[in-house]
Structures
1.
Amino acid sequence: MRVLVGYASAHGSTREIAEHVGARLARHGLETEVAALGRVVGTAEFDAYVLGSAVHDQRWLPEARAFVDEHAPDLAAKPVWLFSVGMPDALRWPLPGLARVLQPPALVAELAGRVSIRDHVVVSGVVRSEHLPLLGRVAMLLLTRGAGDYRDWPRIDAWADGVARVLTALPRPRGRP
């Protein structure tokens, strides 16, 4: 089974998560291709998709949304898993709980009608103050625990392993060994 692990990353954290997920899926015997969504030309040759994007202003990055728009027919016909990389774990209490409840449905609302989403997970990434404008740095001081790497690798692994369990249980696509 061929799986596209596609990503849209602003500063590299989402790319690193996508590479990690791709490697994790490959350990389960899946043929994976990890690629920036802005560089993927065709999608028909894939049997499933794991797509992720950094979250800015409570939305996926433009190249991720454009990818879904352009390839919606292929994505609607095959299984799709989504991951969004935001900063819920960096937020000060009680904001992480609110973010985990409110953010996931909002992020996929514009995609849900066009894509057969099997699952969607929101994970935290890396935040560096130098990546933020002045207003962003002020907001970071007020709302978060500060800059840092908030990626929860065991949680990401568990999610990727769950994706792999589903994919390896699906019937093999016609014409594939």
2.
Amino acid sequence: MSEASARWTRATVFPDMWVDPDDDPRENDGPGPEGELATLQDFLAGYRLTLRMKCEGLDAEQLARRSVPPSTMSLLGLVRHLAEVERDWRGWLDEGEREPKLYGERDADFLGAVGDPAEVEAAFAALEREQAATDAALAAHPDLGARVGGDGIAVRELLVHRVDEYARHCGHADLLRERVDGRVGQ
């Protein structure tokens, strides 16, 4: 990229937003969720949707575009990484053998993120599959204070860590998207 992209947003109401409030699928006019578990799940759902929104409208090459050398980070790499992380979190729930990594060696989730439409489709399918599997596994542990797995980690800690992981990577996605086409916003 030889020139910096012009900064832009689709929002017309507030220029620093990604979309107008009436068009934001994350907005809810009703009361907030009741209870700690529902609150954590709501925040997680919001960050998951934010990541998808930051990827919308880009082609395979744009999704695989790296930030700046020497970083291997890309939007597609983030999608692959979060699928890998979802799978890894399930391994904390019991003392059984962990599932094999989706993408192989350390950082293969980022290194293998190439601008191929089939790779993009596979990455989003893997993310959805791994999210659903981890959600289902955690649903079997409704007591947030319960200690699980060989390390005795609290279910609450796993849920908070998931929210933290998505939030951090949504921040990366903001910068990556701006690098690709200049689009900015919340």
3.
Amino acid sequence: MLGFAVRRLLTLVPLLLIVSLVFFLMLRLGRGDPALDYLRLSQLPPTDDALALAREQLGLDQPLAAQYWSWLSGALRLDLGRSWSTGRPVLEEVLHFLPASLQLAGTALLLVVLVGLPLGLLAALYRDRWPDHLTRAIAFLGVSLPNFWLGFLLVLLFSVQLGWLPAMGRDGPASIIMPAVATATMSACVTLRLMRSAVLGVLGERHLVFARARGLPRRTILGRHVVLNAMIPPLTALGLHVGELLGGAMVVEMVFAWPGLGRYALLAITNRDFPVLQGFVLVMTLVFVLCNLLVDLAYAWVDPRIRFGARAA
């Protein structure tokens, strides 16, 4: 397993290079003039002399290959450049906003696990009965609701009408409840449906008949022979949800004014802040790959039949 982890970490290097190059070219070859955007953010008049000076300062007068190499050499030294809108180092700002995003994503992931997995198991065990119909209706509704619209509904109900929870900001445990629920709802419903399908597939296998014939307790059968064997699809989804909850919650962070990395990136998109966008994409790619690596390693713990390497034990 250690060799598998090392090989996956080695593949991270070319993946980051490819992603950074593609995104760099998308920004540079897109419409608009980055120097003009830089002057607008700096609140300077876009005269010809100012544009020429801005292109020289930003290195935009150089060939694209030289520009990319300049940025890449800085990234290898953990220098992602400076934000055009604030003038501060991008890595410093990313590390400043990252804890809030990790807090929100971690709370949302906890809700996904505590809600999606038990309800999926319940729906499978009571197939075609009222718990199954109820959970499937909840899952269908949760997948259909956009997270930002659900956020507005939560603010209207719990902040405006009832006054129970703060509408925005990060001022205590109560302020994370609505953003976490809005972020986790869709992922929890997807996990619920995957868990239900996986458990139904395991319940039809023959080894459960022999387990009952041996007189094993129902709790042991459910825990060791049903849940563990059904965890592969939900575990894969959970690994993908970690990256989605970190990078895809930017709209939710804007709704609740949550000072996280997604809100920071959305403001950078509005301002066309190229250094911030390049740093954000690089960090999100790293998070996605590491989450997938952790999921792959967790497969061996959940299912002993899986072995990483050239041969199985």
